[in-house]
Amino acid sequence: MQELIDKLKTEAGLTDEQAKKAIETIKNFVVEKFPMLEGAVGNLFGNS
Questions:
Q1: Cα(20)–Cα(34) distance, integer angstroms
Q2: Which of 10, 12, 29, 39 is found 20 to 30 A from 18 (Cα to Cα)?
Q3: What Rg, from alpha-carbon coordinates, does the chain have?
């Protein structure tokens, strides 16, 4: 997940906090729209 955070910081110009919030928002959106993917999303992005 740190690799994705670093990529968002570099390519999108986000701060560490902004990058983490963006990932959290995406995780929540995917799980909300596709609850059957919750386990896979948790494994991919971390279960925090």
A1: 21
A2: 39
A3: 11
Sign of the Cα pseudo-torsion (26, 29, 32, 36, in order): negative
pTM of this prediction? Answer: 0.80
Q: Do 32 and 41 form a contact (C-beta atoms < 8 A)?
A: no
Would you state the pLDDT for residue 18? 97
pLDDT at 48 exceeding the cut of 90: no
Q: What is the pLDDT of residues 7-16, one digit of tens each?
A: 999 999 999 9
Residue 23 buriedness (CB in 10 A; 0-12 / 13-18 / 19+) = middle
d(CA 6, CA 36) in angstroms, rounded, equals 28
